[in-house]
Automatic annotation (TrEMBL):
<feature type="binding site">
    <location>
        <begin position="304"/>
        <end position="305"/>
    </location>
    <ligand>
        <name>L-histidine</name>
    </ligand>
</feature>
<dbReference type="InterPro" id="IPR045864">
    <property type="entry name" value="aa-tRNA-synth_II/BPL/LPL"/>
</dbReference>
<dbReference type="GO" id="GO:0016757">
    <property type="term" value="F:glycosyltransferase activity"/>
</dbReference>
<protein>
    <recommendedName>
        <fullName>Histidine--tRNA ligase</fullName>
    </recommendedName>
</protein>
<dbReference type="Pfam" id="PF13393">
    <property type="entry name" value="tRNA-synt_His"/>
</dbReference>
<dbReference type="GO" id="GO:0004821">
    <property type="term" value="F:histidine-tRNA ligase activity"/>
</dbReference>
<feature type="binding site">
    <location>
        <position position="106"/>
    </location>
    <ligand>
        <name>L-histidine</name>
    </ligand>
</feature>
<dbReference type="InterPro" id="IPR041715">
    <property type="entry name" value="HisRS-like_core"/>
</dbReference>
<dbReference type="InterPro" id="IPR006195">
    <property type="entry name" value="aa-tRNA-synth_II"/>
</dbReference>
<dbReference type="GO" id="GO:0005737">
    <property type="term" value="C:cytoplasm"/>
</dbReference>
<feature type="binding site">
    <location>
        <position position="92"/>
    </location>
    <ligand>
        <name>L-histidine</name>
    </ligand>
</feature>
<keyword id="KW-0328">Glycosyltransferase</keyword>
<feature type="binding site">
    <location>
        <position position="299"/>
    </location>
    <ligand>
        <name>L-histidine</name>
    </ligand>
</feature>
<feature type="domain" description="Aminoacyl-transfer RNA synthetases class-II family profile">
    <location>
        <begin position="14"/>
        <end position="316"/>
    </location>
</feature>
<dbReference type="GO" id="GO:0006427">
    <property type="term" value="P:histidyl-tRNA aminoacylation"/>
</dbReference>
<dbReference type="InterPro" id="IPR004516">
    <property type="entry name" value="HisRS/HisZ"/>
</dbReference>
<keyword id="KW-0808">Transferase</keyword>
Amino acid sequence: MANRSQIQARAAMMRVRFEAAGAQVVDTPLLQSAETLLDLYGEDIRARAYVTSDALRGEQMLRPDFTLPVVQMHMRDGAEPARYTYSGEVFRRQEHDPDRANEYIQVGYEVFDRDDPAGADAEVFSLFALQLRGLPLRAATGDIGILTAAVQGLRTSDQRKAALMRHLWRPRRFRALLDRFAGRKPELDHRAALLAAADPMACDAPVIGKRRPAEIAARIDALRADRDTPPISDTEMAGLDSLLGVRETMPYALEHLRDIAVDLPQIIPALDRLEARIAALQARGVDVGKLDFEASYGRTSMEYYDGFVFGFYAERRPDLPPIATGGRYDALTRQLGNGAEIPAVGGVLRPDLMLEIEEAGQ
């Protein structure tokens, strides 16, 4: 098992390689504003972050990752285009998996560039592949933007599309909603009874809780509107089912997705971006004919990514988390930029896991 000094030495070496690619070295505070993290991730972040507080600064969290503070720094006073690299500790609670480290070192590389998003995607992926060269790893890629475009272009109500987008990162909940909106699952009995009542607000007992009667009535009106919305068509459902099942090498995945676009034409612009990314990867020497693409990849662990996503995995060590992950997060820059935004892509690597794999192979 590598010791801390070995891990730090490897991290420093990797950071130097990113500097050679044009990145500026940055650092961020260990303590991050809990308010910002909660706004971004919701209360779910509490289950995986260490929380502290004081009278002056309020509630704070030990840094769960670097991307958020680096984006904040760039949106506040960064030049364009910009490339950043960093290394340091992050902290994650592992109460459900005590064998996983709750403190470890990450090395990262982030690109903020408006001119060539496909080229930036390829730049980040190829630099990560070079850092990991020689290790027995499988690379997986995907594109959250294709599924997002498919959902946003459905011929259904804005309310239903918003519900699907909220649960895009929870595949089981997303599927349950999709089946209900398509009429494949019956409406819940208690909801049907409530909406069938002549006056759903009629009740002998006093209303107890935080919601006011007007809010409850508005919710009932929204449920009635949803009940009266026609189901998602069989054609669109067939297209979504096919899209979610795509798992092939990149060129074949694109070909398959072009066929699916006959039923889901709203994904065509996202497929054009995928095609440009494939060309950019090829230009950087990546063998896309052997690069896996999964349309659903990243939906359970990459909540702020909204486009290209990737990860590197040790298939001989399924007990290990990803050795590296990354992707595009344009929407995050908009969310943290107070109206400003810039296309951005980046990722992080785990030098401790790289050393562990190297030692196992000796």
